[in-house]
Each structure stands twice: as C-alpha cells, then as structure tokens.
Amino acid sequence: MHKKHYEQLQESVYAETLPNGLKVFLQPKPEMAKTYAIFSTNYGSVDQTFVPLDGKEKITVPEGIAHFLEHKLFEKEDRDVFQDFTKQGASANAFTSFTQTAYLFSATSHIEENVTTLLDFVQDPYFSDKSVEKEKGIIAQEIRMYDDQPDWRSFFGTIQSLFQSHPVRIDIAGTVDSIQEITKEDLYTCYNTFYHPSNMTLFVTGNIDEEKMIELIRANQDSKKFAPPAKIERFFPEEPETVAEKKKQVRMPVSVSKCMVGIKENTDYASPEAYLKQELLTDMVLDYYFSKSGVYYEELYKNDLIDDSFGFETSLEKNFGFSIIGGNTKEPDRFADTVKGMLQRMKDHTVSEAEMERIKKKTIGQMLRAMNSLEFVSNRFIQYHLAGVDLFDIVPAIEKLTAADANGFLKEWFNEDRLAVCQILPQEA
Amino acid sequence: MKIAGEKIITGKGATLHLIPTKKYKTISIAVKLQAPLERETITARALLPYVLQQGTANLSDARALRLKLDDLYGAILSISGTKKGEKHIITLRLDVANENYLSDRTPLFEKAVDLLREILFEPKAENNAFTESIVTREIQTLKQKMVALKDDKMSYANMRLIDEMCKDEPYSLHVHGYEEELKDMDGGKLYGFYEKMLKQDKMDIYILGDVESELAEKAVQPFLERDIAPLEERTASVHPASDEVQEVIETQDVQQAKLHLGYRTNIRYDDSDYAALQVFNGLFGGFPSSKLFRNVREKHSLAYYAASRFESHKGLLFVFSGIDPKDYQKAKEIIDAQLASMQAGEFEGSEVEEVKDLIVSQILETIDNPAGHIETLYQQVMGNKNVTIEQMLDSIQQVTTEDVLQVAKKVQLDTVYLLTNKEAEKNA
C-alpha cells in the first residue's frame, strides 16, 4: 500500500492496485463518526457502443441500460440488498452518470460487514426475465418524474442542442420506450464487459484503520475468480465542431420561462495537467463574470433578466465537455442575446493580477469547504483519478495559475459555432 | 471519534452556542432569529433576506459585498427564511476557511464575524428606510420565487396539502409570503419590520469549528449586547384530525401524479414519545427498508419514490409518492394498508432494533456536517428541550416495540391530496 501525505491539507491517502486490477484508495478520517465507501465502475450512459467481452463485433445496446443495470444489481434471487445494508445499520445508494456507475454506502457501525456487502453484491449479479420486467414500471416512473422537472428538461435540452452525435445527448435513464427493449441477456453482456475489477475503483474514507481495511479488501478479492483483465474497446462517433441546434424551444406547463446558454467545450487536452488547467480556468472565468460578485451577474440582475435560480456549471470529460449558463427569466430571448454578447466581449477583456489573486483565493476557500464532505472527496477523487489528476493536488495547481493564463484562455475560449440556446417556455394558450 | 460538546453562553441580547471541533477545514457561523409565524409579518420576513444581501452602510451594493466575501477566501454567505412548527426563523450563515489550511495564515474568523455583524446591524439604509430601488427589485425576485414554486411539482403538492390540511392554523402560511402584501410594501415599511425583528426576535448564534472560545465570545459581543424587548413564548396550536378524511384532487398537465397524504400525530419534539415517533417513521416510510418503499415501490412497482417524513414542532406526518395517474386508488389503498399494518403491530422486534440503529447512525452522520450539526442543536432551542447528542441517541435506544405501537395508534389520516392530469381525473 502506497501512502501519500498532503502537508498543507493535512490529509493522507493510501493507494493500492490489487492483482485483479481493482484500484483501492483509503483515506482515514478518525475524527469523523461516519465511514463512506464508493465502488465505482468506469461505465456510464455514454458507453453505448463497444465490443463485448469475448465478442468480436461491436454492438450498440438500448438507451438507458447502464442505469437499468444499476437498479437491478441490488436485487438478488432471494433478497433485496438494500435490506442487507439496513440490517447492518448502513444507508446504501447508487448513481449513474454519463461516464460512471457507482454504488455506495455510509454507516457509523459494522463497517467491515458493509464493505464486504458492497463488494459482494456488485460482484455477484443476478438478473432474471421476471425481475427485469418488474423494474420497467419503476424506472418509467423515474423518467416521468424527470419529465415534469423544468430544471432537468432545460439541462438536458441544452446538451441535446449542443451535441449532434455524441451519446452524451441520450438521457441517462433512457426513454420509457427504449427501456422496454432491455433484456436480461443485455444486462449480462454489459455487466461482463464493464464490471471487471480492472475497470473499477473503490474509495473508502472516514472512521477506518487503513491496515485492517486493506487486509479485508485483499482477502475478499483474492477469494473470487475473474477473467484476466482485457482492454475494453468503446466507440464514439466523431462529434462535429458545430452544434446540433442553435436554438431549441421546449413547451411545458411552466409558470416561469427558463433560458440556458450552452457551450460545447474543446476536449483535445494534451495531458492531464492541461485538462486540469482547462477545467480550473473555465470554472474560474465563469465564476469571475457570472457569480454574484461578477460584473455580468450584476448587469443581468439590474436588467431584471435573472433571479436567484441563475447559475452556471462546467463538465469536462475525456471525449466531451460543456458549460451551461442560465436559469429562470422573464425574457428568454433578451437573456440569450445578452449572454451571447457578454461571451463575445470576454475575448477583449483582461483580468488584472489583483483580480486573479482574488479569484484564486475564492476558488481555494471553496475547495476547502467542499473537502468537509466525505462524499465530495470520494466522488471527485475517483472522477479526477480517471482523468489522471490527483484531487489533493488541485490547491497547489490553483496557486500556480496567473493572470496571463486566464487572459490567454479568454482569448481562445469562446467560439460562436459552439454555442446553443435552450428555452423552456409555457404552453401556448 | 468523540462527539463535540456544546458550550452555551447567555448574553442579554442573544445566546451563543460554541461547538469546538477540528473535524473541518472551515469555521461555520450561524445567526438564528426566531419569531412567531404570522400573516402580518410573513411577507416582510420573506423579503428581508433578499434585501439584507444588497449592501451595507460601508459596502455600497450587492457586488461590493460579494467582492468582500471573495477576499475572505470565498466565504459563503446565505440568508434565508424558513418555518418550523408555528415559528419563523431567519438564518444568516457564513462559512469561512480555516487559515491553518492555507499558505497565507492571515486570520479570517474575526473578519468574517465582523462582516456578518455589519450585514445584520448596519444594512444599506437611510432615514429609517431601505433604498427604494433595492426594495422594488427584490420584490420582483420574491414574486418570481412565489410563481416558480408552482413549477416544482413535489414542493407544490406539499404546499397545497398543507394549505388544505391546516387551513385555519398559522402553519399553513406560505414561507415566501403573499403577493397582495407586496403591493404597498416600500423601503420605510420594510425597515419597520426589520427593526421589529432586531428588537423582538429570539437570537441564537452558533460557532462551529476550530476556534478558541474566548476569541469567539469576544468577536460576537455586539450580538450578545443587543437591546431587546422579547415577545412572550407561544406554543403551537393543537388540532385534532377531523373525523372525516378530506380528499383534494387538482389537475394540471403533468406526466406523473403526486399523491401526498397528511396525518396528525400531535407528538412534538419535547414530548416523551418523540423518540418512538422517530422509530415509527423509520418502520413506516423513512428508509428504503420501510413498509412504504417495500410495498408501493418494490412489491407493486407503482412508484419510483414513496416515503414518509414527520414534522417535529407541530405534530404532523406526511407521505409522498409519485405515481402513474391511473394508479391513484391502488396506491392509496396500499399506503392505507401500511399504516393499518403498523397499527396492528405487524412489525418484528428485530426490525425495531434495525431501525433504531439506522436512526442513531443518521444522527451521527448529520453531525459530521457543519450545517447538520448546527440544525440538530437548534432543534432543541425550538423544542425547549436541552439534551446532549449522547442523550438523544440514548432515548432512541430506549424505544420498545410497545412504544412504537402506541405511537402508531395516535397517527390519524387528515387529508389526501392528489395532483394529477385531466385524463386520469375523468376515470377517478
């Protein structure tokens, strides 16, 4: 087990890759009551087309299958795994994102039993025709719930207007129609391909003893047989530079309109360091202009174009990335034009050294605050690790950034061809 | 792991609660202002949190205030109004980095407290009135909030259930206030409500993090020395459930129907059976192992979510589920059957023990989060009951199967609220 200590943050992380390929990270936090463990596979909704394990030809699976599989792993032939965690005082959950499927629990007692349950249930699938059919009703209700949420519709609508062919444009849960096609055989195909230990990461943090914990994990994994690790071949269509739809309008029964301005981000990073730098600068620049201390926020607010639902976010992954700016607005068209104009103007702006210092201070302070959360640390650690970045090296990376970096970024960042607008509008009378 | 103790210092104008802990890389400061929930003040109290963030005597506008926060290593300020039972609470929170984790070790805590003092006691105002243009703009924001609430169907259904269930009780007052009250609101009137708040509200201050208690006490002196004329304490009104269950069905163009049910428990935070209520809720609908989730979702595949939650200061319990509009009767029957089953004592001693462990764990996990810890302690101020976290956990462990059964028998369905679509209503 390899220990890495981060002096300034006073944190230590222990790392080990097991013989079967599973990557394990342990972060003891003895001052916490809680332990949080997350077992994550590098497999999400975008992994639609791939060569299955033991197969020769690439296949494309039904939309929403990664999420469907996540639901079904909890059900075993004789029981529901949620109840196993409950008996051991833990609360369990799972989530599926574009690029990850993760299973997790938090608990303050029976930690070793719960870690064992986590590893065992994820590594022992049981799918039957009957249980697959039963789940369709539950997931259909989950999809319908999201269909009624204007926030989700505007987020996803923006992504769909940005991307022409990349599967990020497919709803994570699929559609009520697409999930009807899913069979137990499909689930096994996806499971066998993507749930090999060499494609997975386990992060345990909280009230643990790292030595005992690694012993337990090693013994658990040694007792199981896996096929030799194989490289997974995944296919992603070429995504053109231009957006799918410059302006998309969705009508639904809302009282307040919404408008989102989306930017399809460039993703040809030369190295993990370049990736991190691009991610940090995108976040910091958006914050500089559009957070409550930003000059553009003030302008939008004074012109009555936004309310306190206004926000922005950036998501950068290996082969896709986007930023979204927006929220509720009374004038969706004027909002879109104003933000577009602001993004144009940013090219000619420069950030001073003093301003850059303030942005850096803010970013660092907020990073410290986020690190209070075991969930944040574990989830982000895994995400960054897959991109070749160490979460705990981010503070020093921020400290290194200069005004020249920000200004260089501003010159290059915005490109009209990569911009799309999505509006949620009330239904026409 | 040791649970951080709470040190309480009572001043003339406020009570200071210190929770020294090295768990976090930040220091959290929260100021709580408590007043009765009243129709006459609710709208102004909903508006104040917005106006107070628009600048201070020394910081000319909202942006100047935000830049000041950025300089304090991105300190996070939030001001919000909430209702708890029949009280209204305005909370000012400021989270600031602990400089021990920064390469620049300039102390931040005292500056943060001073900024919070300035925001609360020296807002941007002239001649006993807030700036008119600010008030006008913030009224817009609040109005939009009231309207936008309707677009979040879960919150909307929840609000409508309480509207109908607690019609004649203060608890049904809307936390965002009322549009008609905003018509003749102006800077002077709002300032009057602000002064009333400063003079009459019960104030509690929480400081949680790695701070010396002398330093903390000294920093909050201006709060502790506030001039006050507090109001008499008033307890929440008691309403027995009506004999007949009322059913309210509304239609909108929705994909998924929201079925929300309201029950009376009349059990409050300081009641001796409060711990048993928590265990009851855990068995009934609080966890994925509960009866509601197991039956409504897992057994009958009717919903993605089906859960219950209790209200601690008024004595209410709510069930929520999102269902296919055509399944209303079936879902309702299954939910009713789960309560009947609880009331018939159909749960095992082993299940009670499991749920107790889950609740203990939930409380311990909540206090692993700065805001969660503060809210857990503030519940005690709200409930007029002072216990340590250890005592709280102990009271859960003491609950017996019989205690849970007695609580189950007190739970009475009052109102059923359904938000559905037009096609379904025709067939209902």
UniProtKB/TrEMBL annotation, chain A:
All copies of domain Peptidase M16 C-terminal, residue ranges: 182-362
Gene3D superfamilies: Metalloenzyme, LuxS/M16 peptidase-like
A Pfam family per the record: Peptidase_M16_C
Entries under InterPro entries matching the protein: Metalloenz_LuxS/M16, MPP/UQCRC_Complex, Pept_M16_N, Peptidase_M16_C
A molecular function GO annotation: metal ion binding
Every Peptidase M16 N-terminal domain range: 63-168
Organism domain of life: Bacteria
Protein name, entry field: Predicted Zn-dependent peptidase
Automatic annotation (TrEMBL), chain B:
GO annotation terms (biological process): proteolysis
Keyword hit for ATP-binding: no
GO MF term set: metal ion binding; peptidase activity
InterPro entries from the UniProt entry: Metalloenz_LuxS/M16, MPP/UQCRC_Complex, Peptidase_M16_C
Annotated ranges, domain Peptidase M16 C-terminal: 189-357
Protein name: Predicted Zn-dependent peptidase
Classification via SUPFAM superfamilies: LuxS/MPP-like metallohydrolase (SSF63411)
Keywords: Hydrolase, Protease
Pfam family, any one: Peptidase_M16_C
Superkingdom of source: Bacteria
The keyword Cytoplasm is assigned to this record: no
